[in-house]
Amino acid sequence: MNSGIDTYQLLTVTHKTASLKTIGDYVVNIGEGQDLKELLQNLKQTFGMEELLYVPTCNRVIYLFTGDVQISSDFIETFFTTINPSLAKRKNRIHNEVSYYFGEYAINHLYAVAASVDSLVIGERQILGQLREAYSNCQKMQLTGDNIRLLMRFTVTLAKRVYSQTRIGEKPISVVSLAIKKMLDAQVAKDARILLVGAGQTNILVSKFLVKYDFENVVVFNRTIEKAKKLSRKFNNQYKELAALEDYQHGFDLLIVCTGATEAIITSEMYRKLIGQDQSKKMIIDLAIPNNVARDVVNSFNINYIEIDTLRALAQENMAFREREVTKAQQIIIEEVNEFEGQFKQRQIEKAMREIPVQIKKVKSKAINQVFRKEVELLDENTKELMERMMNYMEKKCISIPMTIARDVMMKQELV
Ligand SMILES: NC(=O)c1ccc[n+]([C@@H]2O[C@H](COP(=O)([O-])OP(=O)(O)OC[C@H]3O[C@@H](n4cnc5c(N)ncnc54)[C@H](OP(=O)(O)O)[C@@H]3O)[C@@H](O)[C@H]2O)c1
């Protein structure tokens, strides 16, 4: 029998024990004509869970459940082979890749996930949004109830506390956000003429930041013109083929370059043509590996050159900073797990006491309408009214007495 917070149990596969590709094997697959709600409802019923929270993300999958479920190696095997029958051939893998937590350890794990202490990228707040979304979906699918609702409420509070009382998510650790920070620090004007060279994943991310910070004067260059066209829709629909870059004569203030070319594509000769007579200092952000800007361009021209190696070193420094904040976050998590345990107990008492008002009302009604009916009928109106007021008063007081006593008992227990 799982009593108290041991009712919470958690099975998970994360980036710590499995490759990102493998994690997909533990996610509920929706076949043709199937419905996620039905699949999860079946899972919950088959394995005797009272409530179920299912959280699939790209670097972890979590099954958090409550109820009197006895977990063993066999259970874990059966559970995951039910989700994905192809895992039956790789049972050893299941035991290496799945982690199991119960009670306070399950809560601790969920908290660590929400606070991004357990993340692939520590301090990435996105995970809290993913958890909330997963909870909202499971709620709609009627998979969760009061216990998971309570835990989620405390999980969100814990995560907010960690983000506000530590500096875990403070310093950027992606090279793109660091590049943009450099740009903002340099106070590049909002109407600066920007050339965005390359239209791959990295520059798509760059473009999101440019839009976010209201940089609109952007011309996109790319080898494949369709991709340049598509990316330019975020700005003023100005796009050209990469080959047209050297003949571009409209000037620029900032050049952001990021392509998969294995040799420099911004050569001295091309750069000279590109700037023409303009000798003013330009900013170049080169996010490519290897660099897309030739070394002699950097050495010979008036450029504020920001390249990926510097940004990566900064990213590592910031990551080390975030890791140091983890210790503080873990301390908060321990405090909050203890707090939750107390709140959970109180909630159980509250639930048990929900019946008290109903029962007391019944006693009152029986007293008036059955036991003392005849005597009550003989009373005059004033006395009847007084009697009812006294009974209502008694009713209210009787309802609050057990709650107060229970709270006092709990407080005393906590002090022991
Ligand atoms: N993804 C990351 O997390 C990340 C982070 C930092 C830096 N980087 C670096 O950024 C560069 C691009 O990465 P990505 O993820 O954006 O790649 P991607 O999504 O594959 O896009 C590659 C881009 O480079 C262009 N390209 C490829 N080969 C080229 C060539 N020989 N000449 C001219 N253009 C060429 C492609 O043009 P088409 O559209 O014509 O194919 C496309 O615009 C790489 O050097 C990578 O190491 C990547």
Looking at CATH, the homologous superfamily of the largest domain is Glutamyl-tRNA reductase, N-terminal domain
Percent of sequence in beta strands: 5-15%
Overall mean pLDDT score?
93
Anisotropy-based shape: elongated
Q: Just give the CATH class of the largest domain.
A: Alpha Beta
Task: Sketch the topology as an H/E string, one letter per element.
Answer: EHHEEHHEHHHHEHEHEEHEHEHHHH
Number of folding domains? 3
Calculate the terminal CA-CA distance, rounded to whole Å. Answer: 26 Å
Q: What is the topology, as strand order, of the major beta sheet?
A: 7-6-5-8-9-10
Number of helices: 16
CATH architecture of the largest domain: 2-Layer Sandwich
Which structural class should the secondary elements be placed in? alpha/beta
The total strand number stands at 10
* CATH fold description of the largest domain: Beta Polymerase, domain 2
- Percent in helix: 40-55%
- Distinct bound molecules: NADP nicotinamide-adenine-dinucleotide phosphate
Characterize the biggest β-sheet: 6 strands, parallel
SSE topology:
Layout: E1 9-14, H1 20-23, H2 36-46, E2 51-57, E3 60-66, H3 73-83, H4 91-97, E4 99-102, H5 103-114, H6 126-140, H7 146-165, H8 175-185, E5 194-197, H9 201-212, E6 218-222, H10 225-232, E7 238-241, E8 254-257, H11 268-275, E9 282-286, H12 295-300, E10 303-307, H13 308-353, H14 355-371, H15 373-377, H16 381-415
Parallel strand pairs: 5-6, 5-8, 6-7, 8-9, 9-10
Antiparallel strand pairs: 1-3, 1-4, 2-3
Helix pairs in contact: 5-7, 5-13, 7-13, 8-13, 13-16, 14-16
NADP nicotinamide-adenine-dinucleotide phosphate (NAP) binds at residues 175, 198-203, 222-224, 227, 242, 258-261, 265, 287-289, 308.
